[in-house]
Structures are given as structure tokens and as C-alpha cells.
Design brief:
By secondary structure, this protein is an alpha/beta fold. A hairpin with a 2-residue loop joins strand 1 and strand 2. It starts with a strand and ends with a strand. The strands form four sheets. The chain has a six-stranded antiparallel sheet with strand order 4-3-6-1-2-5, covered by helices on one side. Strands 9-8-7-10-11 form a five-stranded parallel sheet, sandwiched between helices.
Length: 321
């Protein structure tokens, strides 16, 4: 079992009216576990409503081995995480976190990196840009926010990235926003795409990339929560062919959670549809694919699905579990 880190808040900075940066280090200033651009920390937060786990991307680079920097957006619909970080955490507070983990790493064989960020999604993208710049690699950064005051680190991006950075403030007018279709219009071998931001932006980028013929292995997504239930979601039945269970999946439940409740032990990891660890064979029924891990061919075959986020387009699925 991994050893948890005890991190003390060394500094707090107001980045925008809604984004606050926290600088963290060990009590004795000793070096911290190393990481690569795109990594995040998972925190164990002792909130009033019980413990919460929240993930925040690391902004800084691996060379700054004595500190971690994260930024937290104060959500108007906080379920306790950002509210706790803003209201309860101050300089000197001790926080408990798991060691850095990276599900959003830069592709080592890429000839060009296309970095897309929206809102607070700039945090891992900024670390990537700094790493690529230091390594002399080819990249471009596109960052969108509603207004200039919502655009975190805009000046630092302009200073450090220069003409490789493109900033968009749409003011609520999509016509002034990031030109996603144009940016993704010509997929090429060796070009890798990375996107982090609001769910609607991620969905738009992924859908556009698929429509334009990007290979799924060249599209990388970072998000820290599972897709929200959709208004039309309905319950359905899942039959597990090998274990013999017949299960009811409610509109607000995932297939994975219902299976785990039976005592079965399927493989899984991210619970966000990104890693593909929970992919299982489908013996009957039509999946409603909502993951980011399967290839287009796998989705079209309907013979495999990611059970942490995907659902059923009909009334019943039969899975090889």
C-alpha cells in the first residue's frame, strides 16, 4: 500500500477571483516524490460531511522538487472539496495526499503537441507547456475562458510561451471562442492532442476529433469526475454470464458500482472512462458508450464496453463476467 504524504501549505495566492493557488511542501523542506508533466495529487479531505477525495493537477515542473503547486477553482456548486480548500485551508495547514499519479502524460513519440485548455483545465496544460518548452519540443497552446478575469495565469503564459500561446475570451459568444473545428481539421501522424477543461468542452473536442478522423491513441483527455447523468438516462438490466447474477442498474448508478455491490471483483481504475481498465466483453445488448478509452472500431463493434461510465441503449446487457 502506498505511503500517504503529509504536506504543509507554505503559501496561498489569489490567481483570479475564483481560483486560488496553494504551494505545498514537507514540514522539513525535504524533497518530494518526483513527477512528470500532467500528473495530479489525490487529497484526503476531512470535511464536515465526512471524508472526501479530490484530485488537483500539479502546475509546476519536476525540477522544483521541494514543492508542489496546485490551483483550486471555487465552484458555485461545490460538493465540499473546493469549499473546504477555500474556507478551511490556510498557511500552515497540513494536508494528506497520495503520491503524484499521471493519467495524462505527454506522448514520448509525438512530433508536435496540441494543448487545449478551458478554465481551470489550464493547470496540467501549463505544466506540459513548461516541460515541452524546456525540452525544446514542438507545441502550441490554446486556452479559453469566459472573460480575462477568469483566465488564470494569462500573463505567465504570454511571458513563457510567447507566440505559441493563443488565448480566447468568448464573453458567452461561441463565435469568439476557441476554433475547435479548425484546430482539429487536419490530423497528422505524430501530432498528439491533449484537452482539459469543462465537460462540455472536452466532449466537443473529443467528438470533433473523432469526426475528423483522429486516431484515439493520439487524443488524451484529463478530467477528475465521471460524466454527469443525462436527463434521458433510464434503468436497465445487466446479466453476468459467468457469475449468474441478474442486476438492476438505476438511472443514477454505474454498472461498475452495481457489480461491485454483489461481491464480484472486476478490474477497474480511474472510474472516469479514461484508462480502459474496466473494459469487458459484451455478449448481448447494445452499449451506450461514454468512455474515452476505446477505439472507434471497438465502439462500433459493440463487443466491448467500459462499465464505469457507459450504459445501455436498450433494456438489457449481457456481460462476460
Amino acid at each position: 500500500m502506498e505511503a500517504l504524504l503529509s504536506l504543509q501549505v507554505k503559501a496561498i495566492r489569489e490567481i483570479t477571483p475564483h481560483i486560488r493557488e496553494f504551494e505545498l511542501g514537507r514540514l522539513d523542506g525535504a524533497p518530494l516524490p518526483r513527477f512528470r508533466a500532467g500528473a495530479h495529487l489525490k487529497f484526503e479531505l476531512p470535511t464536515a460531511n465526512g471524508g472526501l477525495q479530490r484530485c488537483y493537477s500539479l502546475i509546476n515542473t519536476v525540477e522544483q522538487g521541494h514543492r508542489y503547486r496546485i490551483a483550486v477553482h471555487r465552484s458555485a456548486h461545490s460538493q465540499g472539496g473546493s469549499e473546504h480548500m477555500w474556507d478551511q485551508v490556510c498557511i500552515g495547514t497540513l494536508l494528506t495526499a497520495h503520491p503524484p499519479r499521471n493519467d495524462f502524460a505527454l506522448a514520448p513519440d509525438a512530433t508536435h503537441h496540441l494543448l487545449l485548455a478551458g478554465g481551470i483545465g489550464i493547470t496540467p496544460i501549463l505544466s506540459m507547456a513548461h516541460a515541452l518548452d524546456a525540452a525544446g519540443q514542438s507545441f502550441s497552446l490554446h486556452y479559453a475562458a469566459r472573460t480575462p478575469e477568469h483566465m488564470a495565469y494569462a500573463q505567465a503564459i504570454s511571458d513563457d510561451v510567447g507566440d505559441r500561446a493563443h488565448l480566447y475570451c468568448d464573453g458567452g459568444d461561441p463565435a469568439k471562442g476557441m476554433p475547435i473545428a479548425a484546430l482539429l481539421s487536419t490530423p497528422r501522424a505524430g501530432v498528439h492532442l491533449y484537452v482539459c477543461g469543462p465537460q462540455a468542452m472536452i466532449d466537443a473536442v473529443v467528438a470533433t476529433a473523432q469526426a475528423q478522423g483522429w486516431a484515439s491513441a493520439q487524443v488524451h483527455v484529463e478530467r477528475f469526475s465521471a460524466p454527469a447523468p443525462q436527463a434521458h438516462d433510464a434503468g436497465f438490466v445487466v446479466r453476468l454470464a459467468r457469475s449468474g447474477h441478474t442486476l438492476e442498474v438505476a438511472p443514477n448508478q454505474s454498472i461498475l458500482d452495481v457489480i461491485l455491490a454483489t461481491g464480484c471483483d472486476p478490474l477497474f481504475d480511474c472510474r472516469r472512462g479514461e484508462c480502459g481498465a474496466c473494459a469487458v466483453n459484451v455478449l448481448a445488448g447494445t452499449p451506450d458508450h461514454r468512455d474515452y478509452a476505446l477505439t472507434r472500431e471497438q465502439r462500433d463493434s459493440n463487443q466491448v464496453m467500459c462499465i464505469c461510465v457507459s450504459r445501455c441503449l436498450g433494456q438489457e446487457l449481457v456481460l462476460d463476467i
